[in-house]
Structures are given as C-alpha cells and as structure tokens.
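task queued by scheduler; priority normal; single chain, no ligands, no partner chains; default sampling; output format set to structure tokens
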Amino acid sequence: MPPTIAALSFDGDDTLWDFGASFGTAIAAAAAFLGAELGGPAVQVAWLQRIRTEVEALHPAASLPELRQAAFAEAARRRAPDRPDLGPRAYEAFMAARARSTTLYPEVAAAVAALARRLPLALTTNGNAELAWTGLEPHFAVVVRAVDCGLRKPDPAIYRLTAARLGVPPGQVLHVGDHPDEDVAAARAAGMQARLLDRSGRTPGALTSLTELLPAAGLSP
C-alpha cells in the first residue's frame, strides 16, 4: 500500500456481502411470519415494500432500521389493528433471517484477513448488518454505522468520524465501496482517498474484487 495510506475503510452492503440476496430472504421471512400470525390472505412481499415506500415519504430523515420497523408496524395496523405486537415481531423475524442469510462475496474473508494484518480496517455503512454475522468482526478496528452515530452517507461527516475513530488523518484513509456517490464522492468530499468497487467489471478503472488491493499492500492475491 502506498505510504500515504495508513488505514482502509469499507462499505458493507454489496461491497463485502451480497445485500440483495439476504434482503430477499429476510423480507420473505417477515411476510411469512405475518401471514401465519394474521391468517386470511397471504401477506405479499410487494405489499410490504409499497408500505415501506409510503412510510419513507412521510419520514425522509428516518434511519433505515426505523423505516423498516415503522413499515412492519403499519402493515400490522392495516391488517390487525388490535395486534400491536406484530410489527416488532415481524422486524425480529426479518433481522434473524438477514443474520442467517448474509453471505460474503467469495474473496472477501481471505482478503480482509490479509489486509487487516497490515492496516487497521473500518466499516463505514448506512446499513445495520452486524459484522458478527459474517465472521469478519475480529478484523475490524472500527465500525461506524448510520444507525448508531446519526450520520448517513452521502454526508461526508460520517467519513470524518471514521477517520477520527481510526486516529488517522482523512487523507491517509482509503475507502472502498460500490456506490459512486455515497462511497466514492462522499468519501473524497471528506478528504479521504476512495476507490469504486464494481464486481460487474463495467466501470473503467474500478476494482472488481478486493484481491486487487493485495499487491499494493505487498501481499499475494
């Protein structure tokens, strides 16, 4: 790694793990839970997602977990106004399914373990996934999640907080993520270095795998 890089920061969803796959499993589990509790017509995932969109329009500043919890509560209210317990329980079913189904991309575990032996690592994310679900927790010195700190990408302040917790000047932190604005532009606005990760290979100059960071760190892919 160039001498100007003293720490690495990573996005989580769709960078370290496949968010779409785990989310699909989780929302289906929540729908199945509500359907079993409510009886009658099956609860459709599309219906839950429409309610979530409606809730977000009413509460644009809410965090992602707050929106999901509110959406489940609203879904339960519409079908069973006398069952206020169902919203929180549906969220528990949703998060339990996410924990079971969150899957790292194939190269991530080995690449992260190797990089962590050379540099301190941080997770900087808008999501609410737990590193403990993935086995990566021992490799990360710092975790900055929007749900915990009250800052949210693309606000550069969340990246400045990451650098502060790492104890490294922002300019010596390299952030890697899959979103051009929330990861690359926002991190650079905070003074960090940043690289886009595009596993499809369609973006010129972008990383396609975390293994591409290893040679620069003096490690074998």
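post-processing summary
- The beta strands are 7-10, 121-125, 142-145, 173-177, 193-196.
- The chain has a mean pLDDT of 94.
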